[in-house]
Write a structure and sequence with these properties.
The protein is of the alpha+beta class. Helix content is 38%, strand content 13%. It contains ten helices and eleven strands. The strands form four sheets. The chain has a five-stranded antiparallel beta sheet, sandwiched between helices. Helix 4 packs antiparallel against helix 6. The longest helix has 22 residues. The two termini are 34 Å apart. It binds adenosine-5'-diphosphate and magnesium ion. The site of magnesium ion (MG) has 4 residues, from loops.
Length: 339
């Protein structure tokens, strides 16, 4: 069986689309994440990122405690995730808007010419503290996120960070796949030569280093030159990184992450918080009434947001029973009329 695409969802505001999913805004505080119809395989494969993400949120929601810097998931269905809406969307456009790039014909990103404006260090300190707090939590669950970049870091109404997109999350110790320099460092020798190794605090902190670089420098490493895949691997494999000269505290932390200083993500979070405590500006968490939001999601499905079949499965048992009896009677009647 393939994925289920309800037409009713498409009537709602389309927020964004990543490689594998589309996001629709369905109430002022809720979005629905679903598979991209144009990219989904005909048959449902367990390895599809949305299915992996649903499995991750199931594990997350089974836990008693909550992490305020992981996006809240109100309802999981076999093909859909209902998530808390983040007013300021992802971190990425905030930075890309401040870059001047060479124009390119296909609408992609041209070579970086310059960064017009840099981000406030107090906000960077807040976001990197919140991100690593979330990653410490993910590590406690026995997982790695494996896809850390600015598009997967959302900002709520108070500009607090919420980590999202767990479509590549796996338990610690799996082979790191689908991630390349500058977010991963190839292994040059030994049994795992020419791979990016097993996911762990080593791989996760490397990606944190690159994300912190992006926030501090306003662009990805080596965005001002065009590099082939093998040159990316050579530079990062041989630990040839861009020069760090903007902020002593952040530069030290980027370097520590790139050089794999920390044995755990808990230690990354601890050290980062300690070193940025004098520069950070914090904002209050926005209260989310999860139970109420979950009820809203269920009511929307019941009213047909995801099509009649799912609507029926969300009806009370007596209604489903009544529906089955009516359906049966109609088909007996039709049969009778045809004979
Ligand atoms: N909860 C949300 N609130 C607001 N915008 C969101 C939300 N979730 C995703 N988005 C937007 O959609 C984009 C893609 O979402 P993501 O979950 O990363 O999908 P994909 O798995 O396809 O990468 C994000 O970069 C962001 O701009
Ligand atoms: Mg994404």
């Amino acid at each position: 069986m393939g994925f289920h695409y309800p037409d009713a969802l498409e009537k709602h505001n389309w927020v964004a689309g990543g490689l594998d999913a589309y996001i629709y805004h369905i109430t002022p505080t809720i979005v629905v994440k679903t598979v991209r119809p144009d990219r989904a395989p005909k048959e449902k494969a367990t390895g599809h990122p949305l299915l992996k993400e649903i499995a991750f949120f199931k594990r997350l929601n089974e836990r008693q405690d909550r992490c305020p810097h992981i996006i809240e998931c109100f309802l999981m269905l076999p093909d859909h995730l209902f998530l808390s809406y983040c007013t300021h969307k992802s971190l990425a456009p905030r930075f890309y808007e401040r870059q001047e790039r060479e124009p390119v014909k296909n609408g992609g990103l041209g070579r970086l010419i310059r960064v017009k404006e840099y981000e406030d260090p107090a906000l960077i300190a807040r976001w990197i503290q919140q991100l690593t707090y979330a990653l410490e939590y993910v590590e406690k669950m026995g997982f790695c996120h494996n896809d850390l970049h600015a598009s997967n870091c959302l900002l709520d109404g108070n500009f607090n960070l919420k980590l999202t997109d767990f479509g590549r999350a796996t338990t610690i110790g799996q082979m790191l796949e689908g991630v390349f320099p500058p977010r991963a460092k190839p292994i040059l020798a030994g049994p795992l030569q020419r791979t990016y190794g097993l996911c762990s605090a080593r791989t996760e902190q490397f990606a944190v280093g690159t994300l912190l670089y992006f926030m501090v420098y306003g662009h990805e490493p080596y965005d001002d030159v065009i590099l082939g895949a093998s040159e990316w691997d050579r530079r990062f494999g041989e630990m040839e990184f861009p020069e760090l000269n903007r902020n002593e505290v952040f530069d030290g932390l980027i370097s520590a992450c790139w050089y794999d200083v920390y044995p755990t993500m808990a230690l990354v979070a601890y050290d980062l918080k300690r070193k940025t405590k004098d520069m950070v500006s914090n904002a209050e968490d926005i209260f989310i009434d999860s139970k109420k939001e979950t009820k809203t999601c269920e009511a929307l499905v019941r009213r047909g947001l995801l099509g009649p079949e799912l609507a029926l499965s969300f009806q009370p048992a007596w209604r489903r029973y009544l529906h089955a009896i009516v359906k049966r009677s109609v088909s007996i009647w039709q049969c009778f009329l045809r004979c």
